[in-house]
UniProtKB/TrEMBL annotation:
One BP term from GO: mitotic spindle organization
Domain of life: Eukaryota
GO molecular function per UniProt: dynein complex binding
Gene Ontology annotations for the cellular component aspect, listed alphabetically: dynactin complex
Similarity section: Belongs to the dynactin subunits 5/6 family. Dynactin subunit 6 subfamily.
Function: Part of the dynactin complex that activates the molecular motor dynein for ultra-processive transport along microtubules.
Name the record gives this protein: Dynactin subunit 6
Transmembrane listed as a keyword: no
Amino acid sequence: MSAQPTPSRPTDPRRTSHLQKRASLLPKPSSITLDPSVLIAQHAQLTGTHPITIGPASVLHPHSKISSASAPVVLGPGVIIYERAKVGLGMGEGTEAESRRSSMAESRRGSRIEGARGEGTVLGRNVVVETNAVVEAAEVGEGSVVEVGAYLGRGCVVGRFCTIGAHCKVPDNTHLPDYTVLFGVAERRVDRTLLLRPEVQEMRTAFHTKQLDAFRRLLPNNIAKWT
């Protein structure tokens, strides 16, 4: 018997050699105000329904997330948001209960302010939010650092040049004065080096500026996607 020719597979005109890119299902902010010098890396996310404002020279690393789903977000000049860090109300729902349990000692020290600040999140000049940190705070002051895996609850007000240690959980509506260093389980001290030596503060600011310059050289800028 002669071999029968194998019938060719019918061509489906709908099939293509390249997968079409799926449109994002995440809501886009009602307005995004970006300074032209902002660096937004590929895969950074800006979502929500309220305005987002990002000041000059700020840097959003890959997979960082800014959400205005519940309230506006404002990032001041020179803010750095590292990989997988999250900023905005509602970004830390999974850690909020844990924060309250692990930080009872902090609330007993009378650090709660009366009532929360207005809705929204504002990060001041040169604030740094490191990898996996979550910031739902009302305000974080100039030069403050939120270290790896830390959590700032809703309504928190953090002063200037504070340091929130790695994996620290700060309860809702907590007030931290300028130059506070938070570490361990609700332990704190005052950074007297920064407080009493202005030249150290200037060195820290200069180092931050060099970091911003390095990121501009190393990270491709995807700002055109958001303008």
